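pasting UDP-N-acetylmuramoyl-L-alanyl-D-glutamate--2,6-diaminopimelate ligase for the record, 485 residues
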Amino acid sequence: MKLTDVLVKVQPLETKGNMDIEITGVQMDSRKVKKGDLFIAVKGTQTDGHAFISKALELGAVAVLQSNELSAELLEGVTYVRVADTEDAVGKVATQFFGDPSRKLQLVGVTGTNGKTTIATVLYNMYRAFGHKVGLCSTVCNYIDDQAVSADHTTPDPITLNELLARMVEAGCEYAFMECSSHAIQQKRIGGLHFVGALFTNLTRDHLDYHKTFENYRDAKKMFFDGLDKDAFAITNADDRNGMVMVQNTKATIKTYSTRTVADFKGRILEESLEGMLLDIDGREVSVRFIGRFNVSNLLAVYGAAVMLGQEPQEVLRVMSTLHPVNGRFEAIRSKEGVSAIVDYAHTPDALINVLTTINEIVKGKASVITVCGAGGNRDAGKRPLMAQEAANRSDRVIITSDNPRFEDPQVIINDMLAGLDAEQKKKVISIVDRREAIRAAAMMAQPGDVILVAGKGHEPYQEIKGVKHHFDDHEEIRAAFGLE
Ligand SMILES: CC(=O)N[C@H]1[C@@H](OP(=O)(O)OP(=O)(O)OC[C@H]2O[C@@H](n3ccc(=O)[nH]c3=O)[C@H](O)[C@@H]2O)O[C@H](CO)[C@@H](O)[C@@H]1O[C@H](C)C(=O)N[C@@H](C)C(=O)N[C@H](CCC(=O)O)C(=O)O
Ligand SMILES: Nc1ncnc2c1ncn2[C@@H]1O[C@H](COP(=O)(O)OP(=O)(O)OP(=O)(O)O)[C@@H](O)[C@H]1O
Ligand SMILES: N[C@H](CCC[C@H](N)C(=O)O)C(=O)O
Ligand SMILES: [Mg+2]
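structre below
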């Protein structure tokens, strides 16, 4: 593709060299550069991409897009272009290079602290059940219809993302559902994409290590809605205190969902057990295999999106009743003795409150609730004591253990969690550093009817220790501890 065509959406401040050249790829990471590529130098949180321009040229880049002044000693035969903000330019360049794929399918994005993976995945499963070819971009895995493409991020960088969307278009996908993390919105990873709809789940404490304040975190999420076109839809959660804040400046058509108040899409629980729920959605009964009050909100967001995309409500509910929970999101495993274990990805104080409240509503004080949880290393340390408190307040026993310690000492993370507990809470809490041992201990303690919550890792098939991902799967560990298979 011609360099000038790739740059149509950006405003160059200065150029040096031949603009009439062909480029064969675009890269923002010098390590991925191949001969003929355009390299985009971006200032990051760890380092500055401008420091890798010479590396990119060594690997064969023929053009450079940068924000630093073009210095005197530029290489002959290389084209240099300066723009004000390269972070902003990457998305625009990537959409252009990959043929603007987001305009060739119906793209719906989901943002919020919790529930993104659940909603995006349920929409993907639902649209496949409707008989469409569909793409998914999520924390757990990306999909080009039925082809899995592993995911390293909740929302990939703009180049990877547009390439993925282009592959979806090529494979004939008509719809794509994607998670939009606050990091991604802030870093403009979704810049230049065209969304037909956007969904908001909720906003609670997370990622303050990156955003610093709750207000910054909220505003990052809001930017997604501010950027929508007027023919898009924005579906927000009327039960969340920031639900209306998200959409206050959007040009899109605003719709709301709620389990408690007046809204465009309304739902409530009629019956619930560890097998599923019977719901009333907009006056129609539907039984689902999902568990938990928060999943009613998630399913309402799914329902709202499908209706706004033009599906018949009745048909949406019929398909919804056939769908299964998402990997690692409130998945129940039962022992032969009648102990239930729930695998859930709850890794924030709020998610723990939600999951444990649901479990307690079902158990109704007739059996014990045993929670096994930890907190990730090299992530927001402020949430650790809060997670321990919420677990202790809603469980009969708690075993604090390791999550992904990453580069931290696991015992230090556990100590941070224990520091949140008062004397009364400490009485029901023990700590076991080894997660496998912690799960086994919970299985030994449990009596028939009891429920064990194993929280924090959900779908993750690994435990990350000092940069190495060791195979570890909570489902497998529970089955082994229960003596199943
Ligand atoms: C804090 C953060 O979000 N960092 C992301 C960010 O990197 P950065 O700004 O720190 O980049 P940097 O390392 O300073 O490098 C600057 C530039 O130099 C380039 N570079 C760097 C080294 C080199 O040798 N050559 C080179 O060209 C880099 O490619 C980059 O363009 O941009 C990169 C490219 O998009 C991301 O891969 C990287 O994700 C890091 C690895 C990460 O861990 N991110 C997590 C926190 C994250 O994004 N999480 C969210 C969701 C979390 C959730 O909701 O649960 C996600 O969407 O996954
Ligand atoms: N609507 C919701 N409200 C509150 N908690 C929820 C909701 N949906 C899911 N959860 C809880 O949050 C956990 C994570 O859910 P999910 O993976 O769907 O969220 P996510 O937004 O994709 O998270 P991440 O940002 O880590 O990718 C679940 O395991 C569950 O405990
Ligand atoms: N996307 C989240 C997931 C956290 C999952 C938990 N298991 C942990 O390692 O903290 C993050 O990277 O912060
Ligand atoms: Mg997710």
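The chain has three domains: 3-87, 101-320, 331-481.
The two ends are 55 Å apart (CA to CA).
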